[in-house]
Description:
Oligomer: single chain
Helix content: 25-40%
Number of strands: 10
Order of helices and strands: EEEEHEEHHHEHEHHHHHEHHE
Strand content: 5-15%
Number of domains: 1
Radius of gyration: 20 Å
Mean pLDDT: 84
Amino acid sequence: MSMRLRLAGLAFVVAVTGPAMAPPVLAQVPLTPAQPVPGDPDAVLVEELVVMGRLPGPAWWTVSNGATTVYVLGSPSLAPKRMEWDRAIFDRRLTGANVVILPFQDVKVTVTGALGAAISFMRLRGGGPFEATLDPQTKTRFVAARTGLGQAADHYGTRNPLAAGLRLATDYRDNKNLTNADPTKLIKLLAGRAKVPIVQRSYNLGPLMGAILRTPPAAGRACFDEVLAQVEAGPGVTRAAAKAWAQGDVRGALDNERTYERCIAMVPGAQTFDARVKADMAADIERALKTPGHALAVVPLRPLLAQGGVLDQLRAKGYTVKTPGEE
């Protein structure tokens, strides 16, 4: 038996954790940052893979071995719920596909791991309102932010800054109707209707729930400060990035806010988990290449295009990888 726990992004931490602003001018995504964020496995991108799509709609990459082609759709890390996008290419490729490979959206916590997860949750939830731990200036900003999201002080009942930051990020995304589940959720529905087999992994992450407690306080506070700044900035960057994604503008799509993902990267064990997820996705694509014909895969953009990411791993194994500009 198991119980299902919803995730946001690559997160393995659950719920412990006004008018829309005009979209700001987007900065160009640094493919090789001068100072990559410590612990961020997706900070550095493979430059030759970041290419504007030529076909209508979102960008696709292809992986092939001569007999089989897997069409890979890079999905946004965060986007408005139920956003519109041109599905013509997707619909055409779904027809006759052997399988549709999806990123995980749920995790399984086994019964044996559930008790430990519950204890970790209770420890994170203790200690009274988080704002009581803040300096006056930051407290004023945080109170304004949580009030704007419709949350009371006791909603953030923790002394752990990383837990508070993750919860604030989740509340912000929910309040602004942003999600990491789209378009994967829609693609899963459409594949099911077309009776195309679906591959979507789940992971037992109960033992890692307590890892947030071992995150250094300074790293946790850095996460909280970044999330607070993002809440104050509003969803303009994400909405602009989602629009770019729908138009095949890969660089613009990558210029999305990633506060939640960078926070998760600080948790002990997160990098090991991230490497496992990428290796599993690459393995699923490689398995699909053994059946003649074609298949589809959906992979979040940064894990897809990062150094050591899914496409980088498949190229290293000798498979032919083509960019959206080569279609």
